Amino acid sequence: MSTVRRAPMSVLAVLALLVSLLAVSLTSATAEAAPASSGSPAYDRDHILVGWDHSLPQQARADVHAREGGEVANRLESIDVDVVEVSENQDPNEWVARYQRNPQVAFAELNYQAQQTSVPTDTLFEDQWGFHNTAQSVTGSFVRGVNDWDIDAPEAWDAAFGVGSFPSTGGTRVAIIDTGIDRAHVDLLNKTQACASALAAIGVLTNGTCSDDNLHGTHVAGTVAAHTGNTLGVAGTAPDAQLAICKALNGAGLGFVADIAACIDWSWKTAGAKIISMSLGSEKGTSTLERAVKDADAAGVLDRRDAGNGYDSAPNYPAFYPEVMSVASFNQAGVISDFSTCNSDVEIAAPGEDVWSTFPENTYGVISGTSMATPHVAGAAALVMSELGLDAQQTRSKLKTTGVSGLSTGGRKECTSYPALNLAAAVGEADPRLHRLRPTPAPSRAASTTSRAARRSPAPPSTAGPGARPPRAPRAATR
Ligand SMILES: [Ca+2]
Ligand SMILES: [Ca+2]
Question: Which of 62, 164, 191, 213 lies 20 to 30 Å from 238 when distance is taken between CA atoms?
Answer without folding.
Answer: 213
